[in-house]
C-alpha cells in the first residue's frame, strides 16, 4: 500500500532523514519508534507533503506522491492525526467532524453516527467548542476527524502522548477495533507494550535512518536494541 524508498529530507542546510525505507501493507498496523529528535515526525510530514523531501520516493497504491501538495496526498486516501491534535478551536465537535468529511470508494463509510459510537464522550459534547475539550477528548476528535475523510491509511503521530492512563487505554482500544475492521495504520508512540500488542511490524529510527525492523516477537526478544535505540 505505502512504499517509502531512500527518503531524504532537510530543513535548510540541516539534513534530518538519510535514506528512510519502509512499507505498510493493506490491513496492517506498522509502527515507527525512536527517541525524540530522530526523525519520526519529519518522516510523516515528508509522506504527507507537509515538508518537501530532497530525494527518494513515496508511493501509495503504486502512485508517486513525492512532490505532491498535502491536499493531493490526503485525497489519495491518507488520513493524518497530527502531533498536538490541532483541532479547530472555534468550531464545535460536530463542525470539526463535518468540516473534513469526504466520501471514498470504501465499502465502509465513516459517518457522524459511527464516530459517536466509537467515542461516546464526543457525542455528549457534540455542541462544545474544540477549545473547551480535555486533551483526551481533543485526541479522540482528531482521530474522528481523520476517519471522516474515510482514509485507506490512517497515520497517527504520538497517538497517546500526554494523556491520562484511562484515556490512553480507550485510544488503544479504539485502534485495536480499527485494526480488527481491516484499517491500515501507521503509528508513532512511545508505549512499547501497546505498540508490540497492536503492531504487526515495527521500524526504529535512529538519526534519520532505519536502525532496526521486525515483528513484535522479535522486538520483545531484542532487549539490547530496546535499550540502545529506545532507552527502555
SSE map:
Blueprint lengths: L1 E10 L2 E11 L4 E5 L6 H9 L4 E8 L2 E2 L5 H6 L2 E4 L11 H7 L12 H7 L1 H5 L10 H13 L5 E5 L7 H16 L3 E5 L3 H7 L2 E6 L2 E7 H6 L1 H8 L2
Parallel strand pairs: 3-8, 3-9, 6-7, 7-8
Antiparallel strand pairs: 1-2, 1-4, 4-5, 9-10
Structure description:
The protein is built from 10 helices and 10 strands. By secondary structure, the chain is an alpha/beta fold. A hairpin with a 2-residue loop joins β4 and β5. α3 runs parallel beside α6. The model has no long low-confidence stretch (mean pLDDT 94).
Please give the number of β-strands. Answer: 10
Average pLDDT confidence is 94
Could you give a short account of the major beta sheet? 6 strands, mixed
Biggest sheet strand line-up: 6-7-8-3-9-10
- Count the helices. How many? 10
The rounded distance between the terminal residues' Cα atoms is 31 Å
Keywords:
globular, 10 helices, alpha/beta, 4-stranded antiparallel β-sheet, 232 residues, 6-stranded mixed β-sheet
Brief overview:
This protein has 232 residues and is an alpha/beta fold. 36% of the residues lie in helices and 27% in strands. It contains ten helices and ten strands.
